[in-house]
Each structure stands twice: as structure tokens, then as C-alpha cells.
Amino acid sequence: MANDFSPLILILLFGFLLLLVHYLTFLFRIIRGLKNLKPNSGDVLPHEFISIIIPFRNEEENILSSLKSIESQIYPEDKFEVIYVNDSSEDNSLNLLNKNIKRKNIRVLTVPNDYSINAHKKRAVRYGIENARGQIIVTTDADCLHDEEWLISLLKCFDSVTGFVSGPVDFFSGENIFSKFQKLEFAGLVLCGAGLIGSGHPTICNAANIAYRKKVFDEVEGFKDQMNLSSGDDELLMQKIAKDSDFKVKFCLNKSAVVKTNSNRTIGDFYQQRKRWASKGLFYSDRNLVMKLILIYLFYVGLIAQIIFSFLLSPLFILSLILSIIFKLIFEFHILSIGRKIIFNNLALNQFMLAEIIQIPYIVFAGVVGAFGNYLWKERKIKR
User: Fold this and answer.
1) Is the Cβ–Cβ distance between 167 and 259 less than 8 Å?
2) How far apart are CA 322 and CA 60, in angstroms?
């Protein structure tokens, strides 16, 4: 074992300290942003016609629940349309949908087989937009359920300077530990995105609950240069709007705007989902943002490295690890506590310590396989 104060050990300890400071600065920005968010107090709805686009593939278990949820919206029927976009479904979901539609403002399209074949979900969204009448586009997923005031709550966030609205997404509460872990961890991701929007640095959002002006979508050239990617119809678009237009990005802080969906049933599904999400970061156009995310990833790698170095080099690395873990726990628990007050009232924090333990190795692993590996999505094998 090396001398506790050798140059190598001191350099490593200083490096881990810098990574900790960077990560805590990132978390502080989220906390500040969450505190900056204000519930939308206005009652003015946009005058523009609205198009809700719902892409689906092999959703026979969920499609009728989705339809019932969408048909329950209290928004005036003549002010919006709903476009379900079938993306090569191989089950009975298309047939079920067509047989059960009751409202005249709901229609179903099917994406042509040769239409942007590598874009997958994004091709369905774009095909829906190309056939939409609305000046404001709302997207959600076919495995989601909505409060009857969901649409009205989301649209109240729009004013003349708002171009993009990100809404909250939540997992249904499950009984098993795996489901509870996912609910807590996913809430953390949503709050991270909300806080970054609130601090003026829009970074992540979820396509299950977003809305944007069609003219700003066209202004930033929509999904141009991204149609070879299987995802990115949410945060990559949001980042382009924030960077390349004069419109503002907002987070909808309204409990009626929460969209709910089921957590992953299996560890394999969870693994594939997180691998897909991790793959998007490499395609952010903001190089500074990419570098910040790399430093956050290195912080997590460093937590594991400090355990190894404590055996190979010096017990001092155990002390630096404990320091990092303590501050990480304090800041992240505070973020979840704020989130429970402002949006996720039913969020249980009793699985917090378990989530923290699982989170570290899975983030490190997902980052590697997301960058270099293929993944499965909707029974499709997506190649990097």
C-alpha cells in the first residue's frame, strides 16, 4: 500500500473532491430551479387549435385505457384533435382502437413502411405532425393515463413567449420493492428536469407529456439531423428550442397535469429502457452540456473507484467516499422532499436508501452500454 500522502494519492483525492463539488453544484442548481417554479395562476387558454399526437406500437394491453383517458378530457372538442399514429404494430392494438373510438375529433394514421425507417418512435411523431391541423402540438404515450384536466392544465402554461412546455410524469405505485424503487428513481429524474428548466438550463424532459408550438418546431427544423436516431423526440427538441429560438421553455407545475404510466415489469425491461435513455446524451449539440454530464458520470465512477483504491492505495479513500456519499444523500433527499411538496404528494421516501445503493452501479453500467451497445425497444433491436 502506498504512502497515504504520496503525490498520486493526493492528486486522486483532489480529483474526487473536484468531481464532488461539480456534482453538488449541479444538484444545487436543481434545488434552486425547483424553488423558482411557480404554479400557473392564469385561466387564459391559447386560442390556437391543438393536436394531440400519440404514437403506438404493440399496445393492445393499454390502448383502450389510453383512449378512455383521452376521451375524458374536458377541453372543448372543437378546439382540439387527437391523432393516434400506428408505428408498425404487430398485435391487435390497431383493430381495438379503430373499433372503440367514440369522438369525432379522434383519428388513426399508420406510418408508411418506408417512412424514415431508422427513426422509429420519432418517425411516428413527425408523421403525425405532418398530418396535424394544430398550431400547438401535444405528445403523450399510449401506455399513459391522464387526469381529465390534463390537457387544460398543460395548455394554461402557454403565453405569447412560451414555445415549449414540459409536464410531469409519474409511475403508478406498485407493491413490490422493484416498482417502488423505480417510482422514486423516476421521480428524481423528472424533478431534475423540472429544476433545470426552472434554473434556465433546460436539459431533460419526457415525451409522454410535452407540448410545443408548431411554428417553433418548424423554426428549429424539428427533428432534422436526428431522424437517424431512435429517440430524442423530447429533450433534443427542447434543447434546440431553448438554444435556437427566442421562445421560453416552461415546466408545468400542476398536479392535474401529471401523466401516469406503469413502471418496468422486469429488470431486463428496466435495463433496456435506461440504456436507451443513456444513449441520447452523446447526441446533445451543446458540447459544454455533454462535458458536464461526463463529469457527473465520472463522479459516479469515482464512487466505485474510491472503494477499490481504499484497498489498493490508502484508507483515506474510504473517508473521501463517506464524505461524497453523505453530501450526495443530503442534497438528493432534499430534492425529493421538495418534489413531494410541490407535485408528487404520494411519493414515499422509505425506499430512499435502497435506491441510493442500487443507483450507483446501475448508472455506471448503463452509461457504458448506452454509449457502445445496442438495445431493444418495442420488440425492435436498435443499433448504435
Assistant:
1) yes
2) 48
Cα angle: 184, vertex 188, 193; to 5 degrees: 150
Is 39-176+196-264 in CATH node 3.90.550.10? yes
Question: What secondary structure, in 3-state letters, does the chain show?
Answer: CCCCCCHHHHHHHHHHHHHHHHHHHHHHHHHHHHHHCCCCCCCCCCCCCEEEEEEECCCCCCHHHHHHHHHCCCCCHHHEEEEEEECCCCCCHHHHHHHHCCCCCEEEEECCCCCCCCCCHHHHHHHHHHCCCCCEEEECCCCEEECCCHHHHHHCCCCCCEEEEECCEEECCCCCHHHHHHHHHHHHHHHHHHHHHHCCCCCCCCHHHEEEEHHHHHHCCCCCCCCCCCCCCCHHHHHHHHHHCCCEEEECCCHHHCEEECCCCCHHHHHHHHHHHHHHHHHCCCHHHHHHHHHHHHHHHHHHHHHHHHHHCCCHHHHHHHHHHHHHHHHHHHHHHHHHHHCCCCCCCCCHHHHHHHHHHHHHHHHHHHHHCCEEECCEEECC
The domain limits of the chain are 39-176+196-264
Report d(CA 184, CA 51) in Å as an integer. 31
Q: Is the pTM of this model over 0.85?
A: yes
pLDDT by residue for the chain (384 residues), tens only, comes to: 556 678 899 999 999 999 999 999 999 999 999 999 988 766 788 899 999 999 999 999 999 999 999 999 999 999 999 999 999 899 999 999 999 999 999 999 999 987 666 656 778 999 999 999 999 999 999 999 999 999 999 999 999 999 999 999 999 987 788 888 899 999 999 999 999 999 999 999 999 999 999 999 999 988 876 645 555 668 889 999 999 999 999 999 999 999 999 988 888 888 777 777 776 666 677 788 889 999 999 999 999 999 999 998 999 999 999 999 999 999 999 999 999 999 998 888 888 998 898 889 988 888 787 666 554 555 555 554
> Cell triple for residue 318?
474510504
